[in-house]
């Protein structure tokens, strides 16, 4: 049995199908990337997985347990951690407080405050924010804010980590560090599902790649195979032609 | 957010407490009465702030105040319930109403929540006016003087509740509730994804806030000996509840208290100058705070005054 | 069921709906163009009402003629309010905007109390008592004139928004202010004008209010709540919605007043109860929002 199983997932927004009968499975310890042209429905899938949206049809199972219909905080406690594409740290909390918050509430069983603080400090140190725990997020550069997002998601001790475009906007050095970090996460036993646009990263890091286009899954497989899939190339090229304006 | 214990602060608080306990012996009836109204207002301000910490901006606290007031007054009228028990009952009934209202308004964001609270308070006012047989209607309800007119006892009672209220806020700030409330306020959706159940904390804040507001209403009805719907469900109360903490500094312990002190002093001064319309100060204060000092007095203290001390002591 | 009663009730509801629509037009405009709910809108109406009262009492100017004067006065007051209090907070979080306009509201309510005391004022004209018979229905002359003027104001606003350049700019800005700015519309000036026009409409509505209701400092607050009810009923920031909402509110109040025992007292609470019911069931209002 896979860690995550999605079957026939469908979501409409006012007549438009954002996600259409998407099925996939992710096994324990895998790193799977979700790619596709803009508007393909990737973040919608994440929102469906984390319980922010309710699917119109379909099943989502984590470790065999049905997630559909549960509220986001319940899904979090079942072991799903998530970052957001548009970074949203709590502005009036310091870096440490941001991480402590999810540590206090996202874990099952609950930990006392002292312990949550200790864990948060350790996490901050591990992602590279050890010196900055007392700083407010608005005073930090983009890469650090992404670190906050990751630390915050890790604080809930997830089985499955959903990373939404964490690599965008990073310098090459920062990108390498991030890739290293993601690999270390896998070594810690966390299964990773990431949305990415930066193809270099996708090719480098993924065990498997899933390609979404107009809400449908059009390809799936190891990075090398997907990269040569005609349908995938057409989807991206088609997008390019659309974007270059008629 | 984590509290650092300081001996200076502790000493200050102890001195303040001693002063407050000794106060009635120092002053005459007028100032004693003034102190009671100040403490009552501080309770309203602090309890409003508790609710505001979850991002729920109520412009209708008068609904809970009025329910507390009428609970106490009606229970006295029907079964001669002793005043203090009546006040407690007022608090409890308010909590129940708040729980209900809290659940119903969960999905309301920002302004819609505020508008609903205003509408609720006004609806109660109309209901009260239209059911004079039960509620006394526009003529209001009377109760005999609290503690037979002994202002000192009233003073100590309200002081005790105020200390209790402050204690509750302090405990919230020292506990994980603080993280939950702040997270829900700053970004409810993200908080949810991080494992925080917004419903539980929003309703909880509403209930805690309601207890004190309702108790204050109950106290008011006995202390004032006379209540009418227009007053206890009135916009004036709702506005007072929010102006004081906003002026003083939201999401702090001292903010609502300091804000109340200053605003109440201004209000008292105006009250003796003009017979109506003394709440004009409230309007001005709101405008000035939003335009020039959004973090209130505490914000100015933190950002402008404290740094001066730090550079001096270096 | 007595047909005569029903028709009379319907007519009354329709007529008062006209007044409510006039009151809500400005609020809708500001919400649509700038996305701000102006809690002080009712007080602007109140000022218009007092203005009309004083012009009538001191100078004998007929209230329905002084509509233009009230409108003009409040237009300039609106510009002033916008420039010094609204403009600075255009990009603030909605909470700040709520508190600011609430502050203006409280300020104006109390200012009125200080200046003019809390007594209720009436504007009684020579034709106040007159009524017209239309079949089985009796229609008060003032109410009828008020209704017709309210219709006129609505048509004027619609004409302005669709035919006049500044009005069309306002519509563009309410759809998408970045795009509007990019095509050369001066968004700041449009906001300023929109607020001024909204206050002018409120002032004119105030003149109408003074002839139908008592004028007193808190009348603005009462009207604000009715206006919020209408917004919630009809869609926030859209004019046909405001008209629809006004109709629903006016008719409901009227029917409750006629058919419910002691209805006139309960009718006052209709707007509050409607607000609560609608928002609790549909948190973004009955028709949903244009801007969200």
Architecture overview:
The complex is a heterotrimer of chains A (246), B (314) and C (292). Chain A has 246 residues and is an alpha/beta fold. Chain A folds into two domains: 164 residues, Rossmann fold; 69 residues, no CATH class. Chain A is built from nine helices and ten strands. A six-stranded mixed sheet of chain A has the order 6-7-8-3-9-10, sandwiched between helices. In chain A, strands 2-1-4-5 form a four-stranded antiparallel sheet, covered by helices on one side. In chain A, a hairpin with a 2-residue loop joins strand 9 and strand 10. By secondary structure, chain B is mainly α. Chain B is 78% helix and 1% strand. Chain B is built from 15 helices and two strands. The radius of gyration of chain B is 20 Å and the shape is globular. The model of chain B has no long low-confidence stretch (mean pLDDT 91). Chain C has one domain: ABC transporter involved in vitamin B12 uptake, BtuC. In chain C, strands 1-2 form a two-stranded antiparallel sheet. Chain C is globular and about 60 Å long. The interface between B and C is large, with 42 and 47 residues.
Quick rundown:
Chain B is an all-alpha fold and 314 residues long. In chain B, 78% of the residues lie in helices and 1% in strands. In chain B, helix 2 (29-52) packs parallel to helix 7 (151-174) and helix 7 runs antiparallel to helix 10 (198-224).
């Amino acid at each position: 049995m896979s860690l995550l199983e999605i079957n026939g997932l469908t979501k409409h927004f006012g007549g438009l199908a954002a996600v259409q009968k998407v099925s996939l499975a992710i096994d324990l310890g895998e790193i799977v990337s979700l790619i596709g042209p803009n508007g393909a429905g990737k973040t919608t899938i994440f929102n469906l997985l984390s319980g922010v949206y309710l699917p119109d049809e379909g099943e989502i199972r984590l470790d065999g347990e049905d997630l559909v219909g549960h509220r986001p905080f319940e899904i979090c406690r079942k072991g799903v951690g998530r970052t957001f594409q548009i970074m949203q740290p709590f502005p009036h909390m310091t870096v440490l407080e941001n991480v402590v918050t999810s540590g206090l509430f996202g874990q099952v069983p609950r930990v006392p405050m002292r312990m949550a603080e200790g864990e948060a400090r350790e996490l901050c140190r591990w992602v590279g924010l050890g010196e900055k725990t007392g700083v407010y997020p608005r005073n930090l550069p983009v890469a650090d804010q992404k670190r906050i997002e990751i630390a915050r998601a890790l604080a809930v001790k997830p089985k499955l980590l959903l990373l939404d475009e964490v690599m965008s906007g990073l310098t090459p050095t920062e990108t390498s560090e991030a890739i290293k970090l993601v690999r270390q996460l896998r070594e810690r036993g966390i299964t990773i599902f990431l949305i990415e646009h930066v193809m270099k990263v996708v090719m480098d890091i993924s065990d498997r790649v899933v390609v979404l286009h107009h809400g449908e899954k059009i390809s799936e497989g190891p990075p090398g195979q997907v990269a040569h899939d005609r349908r995938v190339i057409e989807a991206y090229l088609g997008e390019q032609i659309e974007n270059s304006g008629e | 957010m984590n509290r650092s214990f300081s001996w200076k602060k502790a000493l200050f608080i102890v001195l303040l407490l001693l002063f407050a306990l000794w106060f009635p012996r120092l002053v005459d009836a007028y100032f004693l009465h003034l102190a009671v109204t100040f403490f009552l207002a501080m309770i309203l301000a602090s309890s409003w702030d508790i609710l505001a910490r979850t991002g729920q901006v109520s412009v209708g606290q008068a609904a809970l105040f009025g329910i507390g007031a009428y609970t106490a007054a009606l229970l006295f009228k029907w079964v001669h319930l002793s005043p203090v028990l009546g006040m407690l009952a007022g608090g409890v009934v308010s909590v129940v109403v708040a729980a209900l209202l809290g659940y119903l308004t969960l999905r309301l964001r920002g302004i819609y929540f505020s508008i609903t609270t205003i509408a609720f308070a006004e609806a109660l006012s109309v209901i009260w006016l239209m059911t004079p047989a039960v509620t006394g209607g526009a003529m209001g309800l009377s109760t005999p003087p609290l503690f037979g007119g002994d202002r000192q006892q009233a003073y100590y009672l309200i002081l005790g509740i105020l200390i209790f209220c402050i204690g509750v806020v302090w405990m919230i700030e020292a506990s994980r509730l603080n993280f939950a409330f702040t997270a829900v306020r700053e970004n409810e959706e993200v908080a949810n994804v991080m494992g925080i159940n917004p419903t539980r904390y929003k309703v909880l804040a509403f209930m805690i806030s309601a207890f004190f507001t309702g108790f204050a209403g109950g106290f008011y009805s006995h202390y004032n000996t006379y209540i009418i719907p227009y007053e206890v469900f009135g916009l004036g109360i709702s506005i007072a509840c929010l102006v004081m903490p906003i002026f003083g500094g939201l999401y702090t312990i001292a903010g609502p208290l300091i804000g109340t002190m200053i605003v109440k002093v201004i209000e008292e001064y105006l009250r003796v100058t003009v017979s109506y319309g003394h709440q004009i100060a409230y309007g001005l204060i709101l405008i000035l705070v939003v335009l020039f000092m959004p973090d209130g007095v505490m914000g100015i203290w933190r950002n402008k005054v404290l740094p001066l001390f730090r550079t001096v002591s270096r | 069921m007595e047909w005569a009663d029903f028709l009379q009730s319907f007519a009354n509801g329709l007529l008062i709906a006209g007044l409510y629509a006039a009151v809500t037009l400005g609020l809708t405009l500001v919400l649509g163009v700038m996305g701000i709910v102006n809690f002080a809108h009712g007080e602007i109406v109140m000022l218009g009402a007092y203005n009309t009262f004083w012009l009538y009492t001191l100078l004998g100017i007929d209230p329905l003629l002084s509509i233009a004067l009230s409108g003009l006065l409040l237009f300039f007051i609106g510009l002033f309010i916008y420039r010094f209090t609204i403009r600075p907070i255009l990009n603030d979080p909605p909470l700040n905007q709520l508190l600011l306009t609430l502050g203006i509201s409280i300020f104006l309510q109390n200012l009125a109390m200080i200046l003019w005391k809390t007594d209720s004022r009436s504007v009684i004209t020579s034709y106040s008592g007159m009524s017209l018979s239309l079949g089985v229905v009796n229609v008060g002359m003032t109410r009828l004139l008020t209704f017709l003027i309210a219709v006129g104001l609505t048509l004027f606003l619609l004409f302005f928004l669709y035919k006049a350049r500044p009005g069309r700019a306002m519509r563009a800005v309410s759809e998408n202010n970045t795009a509007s700015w990019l095509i050369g519309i001066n968004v700041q000036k449009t906001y300023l004008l929109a607020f001024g026009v909204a206050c002018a409409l409120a002032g004119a509505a105030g003149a109408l209010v003074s002839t139908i209701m008592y004028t007193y400092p808190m009348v603005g607050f009462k009207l604000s709540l009715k206006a919020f009810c209408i917004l919630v009923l009809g869609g926030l920031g859209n004019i046909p919605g405001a008209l629809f909402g006004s109709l629903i509110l006016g008719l409901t109040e009227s029917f409750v007043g006629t058919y419910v025992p002691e209805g006139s007292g309960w009718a006052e609470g209709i707007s509050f109860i409607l607000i609560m019911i609608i928002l609790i069931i549909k948190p973004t209002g009955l028709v949903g929002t244009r801007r969200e």
